[in-house]
């Protein structure tokens, strides 16, 4: 492990600001919970999703017996966001402790954070193209990981990530939080236990993204390591619509750039496909044939898919269709009925311009299906009441989390296969065991991308 850490420092990102190895505030500051039971966490990437979801997700367990943790450090490639991240955590602890707290450390280079021996685990809340590389580096440094979905930018990177995690004793939880929501677990149990008969079709509703974005090059903001932010992807001019807002934490432009992600098919699709696989009992495999079409922008900067409809046939004959033509959610259709599930608070737009109508988050072709009792000898889902809480539990118990690396990779790879079918407009034939595309060199070339030096996966 020491040699790995030396390698991190030796290959440090050019231009990164040296952060040193400041001491971490003593655990005793946080109360009576034994320091040996407290998990010290570093947050890598402290923008929109980290502030809205990941940091609050672990902060809620500070001082909670059995799940206690503290965010000891934050890291970002924007110096301004490092300071805002430190303030975010410090303010949260000030509120919890009832006394001013200024103990959160800041880093501009994730390798220096990983090399800190007092950090036990990390949240990785960066853009998609950094996920696999940072996860591999984190487990190599002996850290447990909460990894935002999707698991990777390409299928090959995802396989590397899953293999590296599986070869260690590290706990990696993918942020597929629908696995910790009651209505999704309930729907999966009903489907897996045959309440709608044999599943024949699955429909997943996902939106597309709009075109737009200003491609005009701009000066790189002071204090922002843009080269490291591009990472393994090609060098292109900086413009705010390609990256993230200069102020605030609104939805960033990179989500609409294929250089950094595939768009909604992986951004939200990783959630829904994972849930669909859970109900289909195909969590560790994938489709064998994929096809479909999509509209892509013809102008502007943003280039991820717009409206689309794609299909994936599984070895058992089940066909999964993904499209914005369906309500946003998952619908399993069996020979004896159907079950639909979505997130709370979802709405369905109307064609008349009337106010959007709420979508009932769990429903079935026969409402009595939803009242069915799952017997003790039937299939019961892995019980998790909270995705971040489950991660903390598993760090202590060393048991597999509800969304481990392999399952996250399989969901992501399925989404990326649908993207490959969109891009090529080919029928894609996939072998889930070898993870190879058969008989199509053009489609197969999209399984990986060139990794720019020095940002390869080590």
From TrEMBL:
* Entry keywords, A to Z: Signal
Per UniProt, residues of the Gfo/Idh/MocA-like oxidoreductase N-terminal domain are: 39-175
Top-level taxon of the source organism: Bacteria
- Identify the stretch annotated as signal peptide in this record: 1-18
GO MF annotation terms: nucleotide binding
* Residues in Gfo/Idh/MocA-like oxidoreductase bacterial type C-terminal domain copies: 385-457
**Gene3D superfamilies in the cross-refs:** Dihydrodipicolinate Reductase, domain 2, NAD(P)-binding Rossmann-like Domain
What is the name of the protein in this document? Oxidoreductase domain protein
- The species this protein belongs to is Candidatus Sulfuritelmatomonas gaucii
């Amino acid at each position: 492990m020491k040699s790995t850490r030396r390698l991190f420092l030796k290959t440090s990102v050019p231009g990164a600001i040296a952060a040193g190895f400041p001491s971490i505030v003593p655990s005793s500051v946080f109360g009576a919970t034994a320091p040996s039971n407290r998990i010290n966490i570093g947050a890598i990437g402290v923008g929109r999703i980290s502030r809205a979801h990941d940091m609050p997700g672990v902060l809620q367990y500070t001082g909670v017996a059995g799940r206690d943790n503290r965010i000891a450090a934050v890291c970002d490639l924007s110096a301004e966001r490092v300071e805002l991240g430190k303030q975010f955590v410090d303010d949260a602890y000030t509120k919890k402790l009832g006394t001013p707290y200024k103990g959160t450390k800041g880093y501009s280079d994730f390798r220096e954070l990983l090399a800190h021996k007092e950090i036990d685990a990390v949240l990785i809340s960066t853009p998609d193209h950094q996920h696999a590389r940072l996860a591999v580096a984190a487990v190599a440094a002996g850290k447990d990981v909460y990894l935002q979905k999707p698991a990777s930018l390409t299928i090959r990177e995802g396989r590397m990530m899953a293999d590296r995690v599986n070869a260690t004793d590290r706990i990696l939880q993918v942020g597929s939080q629908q696995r910790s929501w009651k209505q999704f677990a309930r729907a999966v149990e009903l489907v897996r236990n045959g309440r709608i008969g044999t599943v024949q079709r699955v429909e997943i509703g996902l939106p597309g993204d709009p075109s737009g974005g200003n491609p005009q090059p701009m000066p790189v903001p002071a204090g922002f390591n843009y080269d490291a932010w591009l990472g393994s992807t090609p060098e292109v001019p900086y413009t705010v619509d390609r990256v993230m807002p200069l102020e605030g934490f609104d939805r960033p432009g990179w989500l609409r750039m294929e250089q950094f992600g595939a768009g909604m098919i992986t951004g939200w699709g990783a959630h829904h496909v994972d849930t669909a696989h859970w109900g289909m009992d195909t969590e560790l495999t994938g489709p064998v044939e994929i096809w479909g079409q999509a509209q892509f922008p013809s102008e502007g900067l943003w280039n991820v898919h717009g409206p689309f409809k794609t299909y994936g046939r599984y070895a058992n004959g089940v066909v999964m269709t993904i499209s914005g033509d369906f309500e946003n959610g998952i619908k399993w259709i069996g020979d004896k009925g159907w079950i639909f599930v979505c997130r709370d608070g979802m709405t369905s737009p109307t064609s008349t311009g009337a106010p959007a109508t709420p979508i009932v988050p769990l429903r079935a072709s026969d409402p009595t299906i939803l009242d069915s009792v799952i017997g003790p000898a039937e299939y019961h889902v892995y019980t998790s009441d909270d995705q971040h809480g489950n991660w903390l539990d598993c760090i202590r118990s060393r048991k597999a989390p509800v969304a481990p690396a392999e399952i996250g990779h399989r969901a992501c790879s399925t989404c990326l296969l649908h993207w490959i079918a969109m891009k090529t407009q080919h029928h894609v034939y996939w072998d889930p065991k070898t993870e190879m595309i058969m008989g199509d060199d053009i489609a197969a070339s999209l399984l990986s991308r060139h990794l720019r030096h020095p940002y390869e996966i080590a």
